[in-house]
Amino acid sequence: MSDIINMLKSRTDLYSLQGVSDEDIKEVEDGLGIMFAPDYRDILSEYGVISFDGHELTGICLSPRLNVKDITLKERNNNAIATRSMYVIEVANIDDIVIWQSSDGGIYQTLKGCEPVKICESLLEYINS
């Protein structure tokens, strides 16, 4: 089991849905034209979508507000500077802050009309920050 799943399993404030199949993950990756980082794929496989401690991470679910494909496509249109090689993991709902992850696992923050700024090396680091 990955470090991120072990950490999430220990949280008492974790809310999640049902995990999704590798086929579902691949379909969303293809729709976005990217590959998800391994830690994000682990979360999708185990939980589908999660929330905890005021964070609501995107995932694969029916809710367009939390669905990674819907949110990423929307935010790519809202922020012309946002790279096409990343996907949204969280919309902070504060000052148009959006949190993205690259396929190599890095975590980036954007503000509307601004270049992405790397804020963490991994999703685990972001969750623990």
Number of helices: 5
As for the number of domains, it is 1
Q: Report the biggest beta sheet as strand number plus sense, adding barrel if it closes.
A: 4 strands, antiparallel
Question: What is the top-level CATH class?
Answer: Alpha Beta
Structural class: alpha+beta
Radius of gyration: 13 Å
Question: What do the pLDDT scores average to?
Answer: 94
> What is the correct CATH architecture?
3-Layer(aba) Sandwich
Adjacency order of strands in the biggest sheet: 4-5-6-7
The succession of helices and strands, N to C, reads HEHHEEHEEEEH
Q: In percent, how helical is the residue content?
A: 25-40%
Instruction: Assign the CATH topology.
Output: SMI1/KNR4-like
In terms of DSSP E residues, the strand content is: 15-25%
**Shape designation:** globular
Euclidean distance between termini CA atoms: 21 Å
Model regions low in confidence, pLDDT < 50 over at least 5 residues: none
